[in-house]
Write a structure and sequence with these properties.
five-stranded parallel β-sheet; 47% helix; alpha/beta; 5 strands
């Protein structure tokens, strides 16, 4: 905890604390991250082209920073319509898809992508909804994996590795 508020909370007191915390603390994930977890060697081991679909500017900066530390240079779009535009001209191995976006949300965007006659990307849902029903809705829409916000670095890395590990298992079985 950075601050403690005593109830009843006055609106301007809450506003001042939020503004102070946002100005003085970069929005970073508050977990202990092993030094080897965020390594640019990850991109060498698992080469991929990543698209981030996220409408919230703070979340965009946070996820981009994490993906950069893994050795990638992702592209970022703000909504599902922009996802559909960019995938017509460029292939992405992974799409990190926010579920709740304006114009066209992540679930509907995924449904549209799955109907397209293109090489299909691996789509990882990113959502604040962490209930079992949220996960089921994402998987039913055609998403391959699911990470809840706030994003756990370990959970994200595991989700990014998953399509490569699945290929290795498939290749070993053949």
């Amino acid at each position: 905890f950075n601050k403690i508020l005593i109830k009843p909370i006055k609106q301007n007191q809450l506003l001042n604390i939020i503004q102070t915390e946002l100005l003085h603390n970069n929005p970073v994930i508050q977990e202990k991250i092993p030094a080897t977890l965020l390594s640019e060697q990850f991109a060498q081991k698992f080469p991929m082209n990543i698209l981030i679909a996220e409408d919230n500017l703070i979340n965009q900066k946070l996820i981009t920073k994490v993906i950069n530390k893994l050795g990638f240079s992702p592209q970022v779009v703000n909504n599902g319509n922009q996802v559909l535009e960019i995938i017509n001209s460029e292939f992405f191995d992974i799409i990190l898809m926010d579920v709740q976006m304006p114009e066209l949300d992540g679930l509907e965007t995924t449904r549209v992508i799955r109907r397209l006659d293109i090489k299909q990307p691996y789509i990882i849902a990113m959502t604040a909804g962490a209930m079992a029903d949220d996960k089921v809705a994402c998987l039913n829409a055609g998403m391959n994996s699911f990470v809840s916000k706030p994003i756990s670095i370990q959970e994200l890395v595991t989700a990014l590795e998953k399509p490569f590990l699945q290929k290795e298992i498939t290749n070993a079985a053949n």
